[in-house]
Amino acid sequence: MDTAKPFVDIVIKHCGTFIGMCARDYKFCSYKPSVIAGASIAAALNGLEYAAIYKYDLFNKLHAITGSKKEVLKACQEQIEAMVEGHKRQRKEMDYQNMYEKPYDKTAESDDNTNCWI
Hints:
The protein is an all-alpha fold. The protein is built from 5 helices and no strands. It has helices spanning 8-23, 33-47, 50-54, 58-66, 70-99. Helix 2 packs across helix 5 (70-99). It is elongated. The relative contact order is 0.13.
């Protein structure tokens, strides 16, 4: 994978993020750590469109390294990508809500009930 060398730093960063996210999600407890690691690499490279650009069959290489079935690696990769998309969507919704939230929504209240207009 010599063509992947320019992407190494960003792939490592993304993999660390993906693995950390997987560690917090019960859906990934049935996968072996090697599968999660391999699927994280695949998800990171897929996000960079590496396989599409270089016509590289990443799953054959990951299968050879991890000994895991390609179908299992692909399923885990798809779950990781779905989880990441869910987090992105959730983040956008939070940003949208914060953008339109009033900075101060309480009105001044007085203890005086004399209906004074001044």
